[in-house]
Amino acid sequence: MSEATIMIVEDEAVTAMALKRSLTNMGYSVCGVFPTGEQAVQKAAELKPDLILMDIKLAGKMTGINAAAEIRATSTIPVIYLTAFSDDRVVNAAKVTGPFGYILKPVREQELKTTIEMALYRHAMEMNLREHQETIQVLLNATPDMHFLIDTEKSIQMANQAIAKRAGKTVKELVGSNVYDLVSSGCLSPRMAGHAIKPGQSRGETFVEHFSEHWYDVGIYPIANPNGEITKYAIHIHDITRIKVMEDRLRQNEEFFKSIIDDVADVIVILNDDGTLRQQSPSLNRYLGYSEDTIPGNKIWHYVYDESLPEAQKLLTDIGTNPLGVLPFALTFRSADGRPVYIRGILSDHSDDPDYLFEGLVMTGWVKKELK
Description:
Largest sheet: 5 strands, parallel
């Protein structure tokens, strides 16, 4: 604290010099002494001191309270008032400017030192808190998800830009309004606005909400004060419509796949790159004569004749070096009664192809009744 720079605003020369001497003895640096409020406002902007000692009654038209108010409007410099007056009217007028201390004249050196140290400490803590809050706000605004805080009366205490944009308002306009205004305007469903929250509810909840042709993942989390009382709820809303659409398409693709497998005459097998069957293949089992109870295994190797096994393994190795590639194959498979079944076709890699119906290695083959 001793390295702080302090500006003195005092129109009594003797008092000003005494203050400067005391501050210098305490280890502070005095960057200037000025007798008027007008000079105080100007020099505060130029010198940017760490703290200002401000007499309330000054020479000139501007009082110390007026000067402090102007300085506060453009900076965060903490102000400590000096005054010979202690009546409630003066104190109440000074409070409006958010002072960091209030010292009655004549100034006692120990009281001056203590008040300055406490003011500088409080100011440092407030700056850290402000930085922390601004960091949180930046992080919240960096996501398209909607975030806001409501109190137990359903008043919005904080909101990010995503929810403000959805509401067609600024963040400042949202703060202080009732969250149910967003329900009546069609921005949120009642449940998304915390309608189901019970008084004092201390358990968080998450749910999926279908609202206005979109799907949302919603989380509501209680916040307690130092006494353990629930005073606020943080609400997080993430649009998962795209995920839901993809899940629905995948389900439809799987159903379509099963219908194809059941109905087509050709053999269609979906594999992982290690040869594991990703889907049961009724067409393959039908041609080879296997039932659910007699399936030889869950890998394509279990169906292939020993003489074709090296070729089948090479086929998967080669397709692995050619992403999204297509390779022809001609393999001999073993039927349930031990007969060889000759299948020729193509193996195509659709593991990373989002536009293809099936994901994985797709083996499409045509069966010949006799081995050639």
